[in-house]
Amino acid sequence: MTAPRVVLVGPMGVGKSTVGALVAERLGCVYRDTDDDIVAAQGRTIADIFVDEGEPAFRAIEKQAVHKALAEHEGVLALGGGAILDEDTRTLLAAHLVVYLSMDVEEAVKRTGLNTARPLLAVNPRRQWRELMDARRHLYTEVAGAVVATDGRTPEEVAQAVLDALELKEA
Ligand SMILES: Nc1ncnc2c1ncn2[C@@H]1O[C@H](COP(=O)(O)OP(=O)(O)O)[C@@H](O)[C@H]1O
Ligand SMILES: O=C(O)C1=C[C@@H](OP(=O)(O)O)[C@@H](O)[C@H](O)C1
Ligand SMILES: [Mg+2]
């Protein structure tokens, strides 16, 4: 069966895309990011999809993109932070090796700031991030086979911790 070597989940700005690319390089396999798939397929940015069609429409597009990538990708796969909100997606993830990258709120604000590319954090990022995590923390934990804390760690250190977690799981 085709399956990603590892699937990275976690909140916006935790480093899924940055760390995913590093882990793929270290494993000598291909890196894929479902946000990039969505942008390529739609020919517009994530922020534009949110503005043009709203979050429910984005989630429907995202669900399709995630299910396609889980079915066909063999390397490292990073999901958008909200992909785990979908119950069918969580069910599919149960069959995969999933690593949850975590961080606390201060680290989150440092990394994402007022970056308008992430529409869900455009206004009052600290409060919005707390609310998002209250709604999602248990879902990240539910789908994950391992949790890697990223606070105060460089992307290279986080990538190494992910590789260590993989080695433990694959052993
Ligand atoms: N371990 C880290 N320490 C500090 N900054 C980081 C770390 N990992 C990622 N970043 C920075 O945080 C921002 C968000 O990273 P990104 O990989 O896009 O996160 P995600 O895909 O989870 O939203 C980027 O500016 C990136 O350079
Ligand atoms: O957490 C979320 O709901 C989102 C996370 C984003 O991806 P990253 O987690 O890669 O920033 C992107 O899919 C969109 O802005 C919504
Ligand atoms: Mg990303």
From TrEMBL:
Keywords: Amino-acid biosynthesis, Aromatic amino acid biosynthesis, ATP-binding, Cytoplasm, Kinase, Magnesium, Metal-binding, Nucleotide-binding, Transferase
Catalysed reactions, semicolon-separated: shikimate + ATP = 3-phosphoshikimate + ADP + H(+)
Binding site for substrate: 35, 59, 81, 136
InterPro entries documented for this protein: P-loop_NTPase, Shikimate/glucono_kinase, Shikimate_kinase/TSH1, Shikimate_kinase_CS
Molecular-function GO terms, alphabetical: kinase activity
Co-factor binding details: Binds 1 Mg(2+) ion per subunit.
Keyword Phosphoprotein part of the UniProt annotation: no
Binding-site residues, ATP: 13-18, 118, 153
Pathway involvement of the protein, from the record: Metabolic intermediate biosynthesis; chorismate biosynthesis; chorismate from D-erythrose 4-phosphate and phosphoenolpyruvate: step 5/7
Enzyme Commission no: 2.7.1.71
Gene3D superfamilies in UniProt: P-loop containing nucleotide triphosphate hydrolases
Major location (coarse): cytoplasm
Organism domain of life: Bacteria
Localization: Cytoplasm
Binding site for Mg(2+): 17
Cofactor: Mg(2+)
Family under the similarity heading: Belongs to the shikimate kinase family.
Matches recorded under PANTHER family: SHIKIMATE KINASE, SHIKIMATE KINASE 1, CHLOROPLASTIC
Functional description taken from the UniProt entry: Catalyzes the specific phosphorylation of the 3-hydroxyl group of shikimic acid using ATP as a cosubstrate.
Subunit structure: Monomer.
Protein's name according to its UniProt entry: Shikimate kinase
Record organism: Streptomyces siamensis
